[in-house]
């Protein structure tokens, strides 16, 4: 009888019961037993405090969990596992510098540094924007044990440094270990698409779909690629499948909207783009596309509204100012048109310029002609012709026809000018759309994002 009582008073006598309830996820019962044990032992049970800390963390009570782990550390200062858990709690609380210090202490207490410790330290450095240290620890993590997550973070670090070739190299190395991973195949396929290697991209994305036919990342990426070749029905079929997995993706709704725009179903396009805007109200690309579609519907005030919002969010994109100038031109504000085109020319002269200067000057000349500034129109037309002669770009018949009509209009009298003025306005809208249409169909990477955007970014996530 006395022996039994002594056994029951042992500090570890109910550890088995605490463990049993914990692994069964019977947390309320587990906490009840723990509190009884802590009351009996005056709080001096390391295991009870440790399990209580894990339960509190699972409930989102991070600070209380950290306090319990500190008690465990005081009771057993040489326990490396407890220090690792303290570091994890600090990481979840956003105290990354302290978390790194705790992980380093855990490394000193343990015989060897495991893969998980290096991975967690790499994540801490990543959140502290120390990309070099993060890369170093992710590499050490891979040396200890190969894991998909470490490869993914290494690739993201390379992308954060704008080093796409290095990111592709990381993914290709990962595919040697995980050749049937659809997420890896989708990611590397999207990167190949960004660098213009469409054949390789199509191959990788096709492999991803072979292993997982409903992979939303691969579906959206391959559909956006086909969308650039104006096969809108095929793209919409793929988007429909992806919609079952990611119904709240702004990138996906943006792409669907631009498919309808390509099919000249403007009301459906606006409906989809407004859904995308609702899901991601601060995405300038969606606002740009809304402005573009409203221009085609001759709703110039609405186009002005969306394009102005896009410019406020992304003031360094020349294409926003070009479309804004077209919208303002129809609202009869010649001076504002001139200012918009001048700003577009300044921005387009930088490395990030995305519109051919020839097209910019042609649009500028047409706008000046429509506002009766013939001298300026001739000046801009001459600048466009000079660029056409200097470059080796081949323009399609429609743009050449616009150029011919503009030349003819500038040489005729005022009576006939009114007739040509209407023709040029109609032609100009069509030309502006063709310049921009393919540029702003976002490829979905959630962030991609796709971002990813980018959601996919559309670089990003845009195609």
TrEMBL record:
InterPro entries: TPR_rpt
Pfam families according to UniProt: TPR_8
Record's compositionally biased regions (Basic and acidic residues): 423-435
UniProt repeat feature TPR, residue ranges: 148-181, 284-317
Ranges where the record places region Disordered: 423-463
Keyword Repeat applies: yes
One Gene Ontology CC term in the entry: ciliary basal body
Alphabetical UniProt keywords: Repeat, TPR repeat
GO BP, sorted A to Z: cilium assembly; protein localization to cilium
UniProt KW tRNA processing keyword: no
Name this polypeptide is given: Bardet-Biedl syndrome 4
